[in-house]
Structure formats: structure tokens, C-alpha cells
Amino acid sequence: MKTLLRKDTTGDKKEAQCCAKISRIYAGCHD
Amino acid sequence: MRKSKHNIISKIKGSDDYYIVNLLSGNADIIDASEGEAFLKGDISDPGPYVEKGYLIEEEDEKKLYRKRYLDFLDEYENSELQIFFVPNYSCNFNCSYCYQTEYSAAGENYSTEIINAFFKYVDDNFSQRRKYITIFGGEPLLSGKVAEGRIRQLLGGAEDRGLGTAVVTNGYNLKSYIPLFTGKNIREIQVTLDGVGEVHDRRRPLKNGEATFTAITEGIDAALSAGFPVNLRVVIDRENISSLPALSRFAAEKGWTKNPLFKTQLGRNYELHTCQKGESSLFTRLEMYEELYSLIKEYPEILEFNKPAFSIARFLSDRGELPTPLFDSCPGCKNEWAFDYKGNIYSCTATVGKEGEELGTFYPEATAKKDIIAEWENRDVTSIPECRDCSLQLACGGGCGSVAKNRTGSLNTGDCRPVKELLELGISLYF
Which among B319, B332, B403 has CB closest to A12? Predict the structure, then answer.
């Protein structure tokens, strides 16, 4: 069994959260 | 000890290995073929690692964990930012081949400033406690002429007076000429659509008189980025234009857009909303679109510089190294999204705004609300939709889009199922 998780994700997380926030404009929930 | 109800397990495309993902426990693993087959048969020689990761769990423990995660989700949802759409007009200067608003009425567009004032008063009266921002939507909001400009100016001013940011969803044709109006305002993002390079785009998204629009839009994107405004480029994909995605990716790279931190992209599927689609044969199902993307990316990996498709939660897992929190509800309608139009009507979201019969109330000339229907929207999630309750994919799917579900079944409290298992087969193969 090989995990797909990574332990240290602090840096990635910060950037990704910011991207997620700014992109929810016309998020296309129906896409 | 039994298998978790929330295990998602399947073979990775192009491999003998299996993936196993559990949104409730937050674990994701790859297991080899013999282990995977044994797990599916329930013939597990060493259950220890499966128990540790929540793939095997006592029924009562799982119920408790589910309740806790659900309460956390509701908490987070209540505190999330509200997106409030306003449609200043349904008219449009484009004649897109796949428009879902073709039959919407553009009557009464010669209205006074009173309507937009009433919109902001409604926002003040009803959403004062929520973090929020305004998104200007259409029709096409950035039309040429003093009347359209005046409305955009009034909307930006109303948002600014309340300290709210504004986003704009536009076809981009007149974007360049609107940049001076945006300057100095808190513009969160401008969403523009390009469906390909040159003629590929122009065939799908021409002006009403048939003229080309590609060059004007690219000039608008350049102008917005130069002025420091974030641009979110949407590409609407179907069978007609998917093969031109590599060319669009290269074009965006050559323009320097993909290296610009202000530039983002989204691939939108062409969908089955309302009166949409003159030629339904060009429509992709969600899975078909991702299957095509998978093959295309294998051949043209440069597409990933332009856009890294989600493949359900595979991109999230690859980018962040962890799973997202369980998604008990993927429909924002009447929860953290509302839509208003210049006719004084209120709707749940961008999928329903302007569609006759979908009005949930009014903000002008007086404030009214269809409370029963609003409650239906508010209560719709995977715990309320009957077919979601026993589905192992529910916490990745979230029940899908309420409007698409209602279009399909006639009832809002039904699912718009996402092919999560198949998307993960592709996405985990591509990103790991």
C-alpha cells in the first residue's frame, strides 16, 4: 500500500487556497 | 469491522494497480493488483493498514465520524463568502452556437437607476452579516454605449461604497474599452471566454452580424493583464473544438499569459441547460470530455501549462498532497450564491437566473420571497437527496448541480451524478 498523501504541504496549501478563492467566479457547478 | 461505505476503489487506467480513496478518513493509496482484488473480495490477509486508514471501520464509528464531518462542513459553509450575481441586461452582442439563454427575454432593458439602488438596498438588508462580493453577469454586461457603461459604473460605485469587490463575466469583446472604467476599482477578477485560436473561436462565438471576435478579445485580455486585473479565461469545450486545445495552449504561452500570475484558466463543459444546444451531437458527457482530455494531454503535455484538469479530486490531491474536506454539497444555490436581474427578480444561481418559472422572489418594486422553494434549495445536499445517501461517491460528488438535476428529473432534490470513480481512474493515472 503506497500513500498518495504528502506530509509537508504548507506552502502548496497557501497558494492553492488563494487560487481556489479567486477562481470561484462563474464556477460552472453545472459544467 | 467492515468496509467503509465511503471507499472509492477502482483500477488505475493503464495499470494493474488499484487506487483506494476515502474522503471521510482523508486517505488515498495505491495498492497492487493482488491486494486490490483481495480487498474487493473481502479476503484481506493483513487488515491492520486498512483499519489504520479508515478503509475498514466499525459501523457506529463511521456514523459518528460522518456526523462530525457534516457539522464541520455546515459550519464552514455558513462562514464562506457569498457571491452575489447581478444581471444588468440579457441582451448580447454575440451569437454563440451553444447559448443557453437564447430564449430569455431581454424586455425592459431601458430602466432607471432606481433598480440598481434597490438591488444594493436588498443586499444591505439581507446579507449584512455575510462576507460577500458582487459579480456582474449577463447577457453580455460590457456592451458599447453610454447606457451600458452607466450601469457598470453604478454597479462598481455601489460595490465600492460598501467596500465590496466586484468580478465581471464578459465575452471580452469590449473589455479593452472598459479598462479605464475599472481602473482604481476593486476588481477581483474578469472572466473571459475563448474557445480556440482564430477561426475555431470565431465560428463558435461570432458577433450577432457574424463578424469575428477573437482578435478584439485577445486585445482585451492583454489590456486587462497590463492594467493589473486578474483574468480567468474560460474555454467551453465540446467535440467541435477540443482538438484545438493544444493550439490555444501554445497561443496563451506565446502571449506570455500562462507565466503571468494574474492569469488563470478553466475548461467548461458545454452542457444540457434549458434551451441550450442547436447541435446536441457535439455535446460531451462529463466523462467523455475527460477521456478526450486524458488522451490529448498524453499527446500534448503542454496543455497542462495552460490548464490542469480536475479529474474529480485527482488534481487537488496531486497539487496539495492531501484530500479536500468531504463535499456534502456541491450546489451553492441559495447558500453561498444568489443571482439578481434588472427586472427585479431573484434566482438561486447563474444556471437559473433569467429562466421563466425559476424566480424565487423579487427585490423590486418590493421585496418578496417564495420561502418554501428557497428552503428546498437551502436543504438540498447529499443527506437530503435519496439516491446520494447510500452512494460511496457522495463525498466527492456532492450531489452535483441542482438546476441540471431539476431539468433532468423535474425535482430539485435529486442528484446530478458525477462519474467520480472513472474520473479518478484517469486522473490518478495522469498525475501520479
Answer: B319
Which residues of B fall within a CB distance of 8 Å from A24? 83
B321·A29 Cβ contact <8 A: no
Residue of A nearest to B237 (CA): A31
Reduce the DSSP state of residue B176 to 3 states and report it.
helix
Cross-chain CB nearest to A23 (options B266, B351, B404): B266
| Complex ipTM more than 0.90, yes or no | no
- pTM for the complete prediction? 0.93
Q: What is the pLDDT along chain B (432 residues), one digit of tens a residue?
A: 899 999 999 999 999 999 999 999 999 999 999 999 999 999 999 999 999 999 999 999 999 999 999 999 999 888 889 999 999 999 999 999 888 888 888 888 999 999 999 999 999 999 999 999 999 999 999 999 999 999 999 999 999 999 999 999 999 999 999 999 999 999 999 999 999 999 999 999 999 999 999 999 999 999 999 999 999 999 999 999 999 999 999 999 999 999 999 999 999 887 666 655 555 668 888 999 999 999 999 999 999 999 999 999 999 999 999 999 999 999 999 999 999 999 999 999 999 999 999 999 999 999 999 999 999 999 999 999 999 999 999 999 999 999 999 999 999 999 999 999 999 999 999 999
| Cell numbers that stand for B189 in this block | 477578477
B149 exposure class (CB count in 10 Å sphere: 0-12, 13-18, 19+): middle
Distance from A5 to chain B by nearest Cα, in Å? 5
- Measured CA to CA, the distance from residue B335 to residue B50 in angstroms comes to 36
Whether A19 has its CB under 8 Å from any CB of chain B: the answer is yes
Question: Which alpha helices (H) appear in B173-244, and where do they start and end?
Answer: 175-182, 199-204, 214-226
**C-alpha B419: how far from its chain's center?**
16
User: Which residues of chain A neighbour B332 with C-beta distances below 8 Å?
Assistant: 27, 29
Q: Answer whether A26 touches B (CB < 8 Å).
A: yes
